[in-house]
């Protein structure tokens, strides 16, 4: 298992000691998921954190009409998990699905929590990661969903061309909170 990108991403938030890295790698496994495999099913306990080595992962819930509502997408070199479910030790409200064939580094939440208590540097990594991704990055996204038009949110998604090009139209529409027909109208209006 080649872990260099994983370690590089960890160290972008906080530089970890060799001992901490080794202890973390000792609880990691490399797993493969085929397109449409669920890494986590809504209603199940979230037991793992994931680092995406290759592929694309979606994070979604299902509304009362049975429609998938995508909240976020994770590309290569991203960390993914049902973090709230792990923290609260409750079943997840979200599904995590492979939108492409994926290779991930997977590590158990319980063993990871023990390492957070053992290694101060890993705890600081975790703190800085949560601050950046669950506060700084998430807050503007929530404001955007509440106050901005679907057209403006579409244009923001379009700025990340590599992600946009990998998504199916129904994923984009779901993420924007609109129907595929409404998405077609927006695209037509912009072209």
UniProtKB/TrEMBL annotation:
Residues 12-116 form the Cyclic nucleotide-binding domain. Keywords: Plasmid. The keyword tRNA-binding does not apply. The keyword Methyltransferase does not apply. Coiled coil: none annotated. SUPFAM superfamilies: cAMP-binding domain-like. CDD domains: CAP_ED (cd00038). This is Crp/Fnr family transcriptional regulator.
């Amino acid at each position: 298992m080649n872990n260099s990108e994983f370690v590089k991403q960890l160290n972008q938030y906080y530089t970890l000691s060799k001992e901490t890295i080794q202890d973390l790698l000792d609880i990691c496994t490399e797993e493969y998921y085929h397109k449409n495999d669920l890494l986590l099913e809504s209603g199940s306990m979230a037991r793992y954190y994931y680092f995406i080595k290759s592929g694309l992962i979606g994070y979604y819930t299902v509304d009362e009409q049975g429609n998938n509502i995508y909240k976020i997408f994770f590309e290569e070199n991203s960390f993914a998990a049902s973090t709230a479910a792990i923290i609260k030790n409750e079943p997840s409200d979200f599904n995590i699905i492979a939108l492409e064939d994926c290779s991930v580094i997977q590590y158990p939440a319980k063993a990871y929590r023990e390492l957070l208590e053992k290694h101060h540097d890993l705890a600081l990594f975790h703190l800085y990661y949560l601050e950046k991704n669950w506060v700084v990055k998430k807050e503007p996204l929530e404001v955007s969903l509440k106050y901005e038009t679907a057209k403006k949110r579409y244009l923001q998604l379009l700025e990340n061309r590599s992600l946009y090009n990998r998504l199916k139209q129904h994923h984009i529409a779901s993420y924007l909170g609109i129907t595929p027909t409404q998405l077609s109208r927006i695209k037509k209006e912009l072209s």
